Amino acid sequence: MGGSSTELNVLSPQSGVWDVPIAAYIHIPFCRRRCFYCDFPVSVIGDRLRGETSLSIQRYVNWICQEIRATPSQGEPLATVFFGGGTPSLLAAEQVWQILETLAERFGLSDSPEISMEMDPGTFTLEHVRDYRQAGVNRVSLGAQAFQDGLLHDCGRTHQVVDIYEAIDRIRQANIENFSLDLISGLPHQTLEQWRDSLAKAIALNPNHVSAYDLVLEPGTVFGKRFAVGETPLPTDDLAAQMYGLASETLRGAGYGHYEISNYAKPGFECQHNLVYWRNGSYYGFGMGAASYVQGQRFSRPRNRDAYADWLQGYVAHEGRLDEPMTSESDRLFETFMLGLRRSGGVDLAVLEESFGCDRIERVKGALKNYEDRGWVIFSADGRMRLSDPDGFLFSNSVLVALWEFLCCS
Fold it and tell me: Are 4 and 269 in contact (CB under 8 A)?
């Protein structure tokens, strides 16, 4: 289940033709508690999975299936499905099956789709994960985050380190070979040695894929209210940069390709669903807060359940038609650069020239000359533009701000 080298066509809105979605994201918002860094649309349910809470979860699953059935098919079967959250591993296997069956009936599934599920340690038994596998889940993204109980507690996580090891044992016993570990650097009080230790312990578990994210302080979160960027107990900018460089060096040294700013994979195990995003391809989104990009229209659903339920009534009544503005040519070009430069392979300039014109792409190259001189941006002999690893990735925001100002503000 590897990454494809095929570059998606980047089509101009003026052409009236768009790539057909082959990916679907399913948002499952339920969590036992909200982590202190989390800004995602979630519904906190504690440890209650029976009675009214169980009925509420089933009601939400029914809403998702309603939305799927109301959504017009663009004619291609789905190659990837991603259950994100929230904590999708709080669903019963029957509910996962219900959603997948509805997707298959509406859009069809390819012969060997990648079906991913985000799972949290301590939220599932061996029986659960076996049932998920039977329902069709064949890839797991496990939210480990850290290998120090103190850091997990300080982040508001509900699991301990021992739960990580038990979760991976269950995943393997269920014969799900394709699994990823999520880690977070830049946490409050986190030291470089702790980060080194987390990387080493993650590698020792031999996952096919590792996501190593840098903490982002989001307004309104517990961390966003407690801490300020650049101030203790958060790591300094220099320490955060060291952590990023250490992750790249350590994981690449262990045989993981650094194929995206925050993601590493053994050969053939790149996340196919996320590659759709990073190639600026079209995709369906379902559930509260979920985003979709279909026929040139980007749209995000309401972020709380009541508002989502109200929106869904209108969506079904209008047979899934959206009255959203089309992305402009400048926005589409910027989005293609912004997403494509997250990947180690960058963007194919010849494809962009075909859609947006040679002169415009040449002007973009000129606007980034300063960053090319610094070694952050590389224009390779095969006609691609990419960011260097690790410095270009580390300073990607500076490059993207320059691109934004040139393409969308000038």
Answer: no
Quote the tokens at residue 55. 């009925």
Per the DSSP assignment, residues forming a β-bridge with 28 are 85
% the chain with pLDDT above 70: 94
64-116: pLDDT as tens digits: 999 999 999 999 999 999 999 999 999 999 999 999 999 999 999 999 999 99
> Which domain range does residue 82 map to?
17-278
CATH number of the structural domain spanning residue 403: 1.10.10
Q: How far apart are CA 66 and CA 58, in angstroms?
A: 12
- State the Cα–Cα distance between residues 33 and 158, nearest whole angstrom: 7
CATH code of the domain in which 129 resides:
3.20.20.70
Residues 57 and 123 in one domain: yes
Cα 24 from chain centre: 12
Q: Is the peptide bond before 233 cis (omega within 30 degrees of 0)?
A: yes
* Residue 288 near residue 302 (C-beta atoms within 8 A): yes
Indicate whether this model's pTM tops 0.85.
yes
